[in-house]
Amino acid sequence: MRTEWLPEGGAGVITSKGASGGVTLPKGVEVACERVHRLPCHRRSAGVARLLLREFLAGLEGGELYVDVGELLLSELVTNAVEHACVSPSIAVQFGVAVGRLRIEVHDASCERPEVRPLRDGDDESGRGLPLVQSLAVAWGCCPRPGGAGKFVWAHVGPAEGAS
């Protein structure tokens, strides 16, 4: 289990809401549960990833508190990877829960970093994914993959509003 949710120093991190990026877990605190899946670089992978996340969260006490926003952000990140970063036949998704947050990672082999662009005309069907991630995630960012080519884009999701 990892005890740090970002490469050392958080190099290359993009974050929203003034957050510093990843969470370094206190000594002795481990990720409660973590799962990794490899998916084909295909437009249907976002739906498969959502199903895998629902199954993962269903097995955790309190997992339902992360489902709605988690599914939306995962879907956006997977869609981004498939549409803009598929230089290999597959991507990887990773989920983990610790310290009251769901962490979602989407790994791909492209070194091209995601870029938040200003929203255009309200009728555009693309370009809304990263602004949604920026708006709904507690924190998010992009880092080079440790020991390999490419990058991973991550997002932290807090429990649903009004949850006790």
UniProtKB/TrEMBL annotation:
Q: Which UniProt keywords apply?
A: Kinase, Serine/threonine-protein kinase, Transferase
Name assigned to this protein = Histidine kinase/HSP90-like ATPase domain-containing protein
Q: Where would I find the Histidine kinase/HSP90-like ATPase domain in this sequence?
A: 47-137
The record's section on InterPro entries has: Anti-sigma-factor_SerPK, HATPase_C_sf, HATPase_dom
Q: Does the keyword NAD apply?
A: no
Record-linked Pfam families: HATPase_c_2 (PF13581)
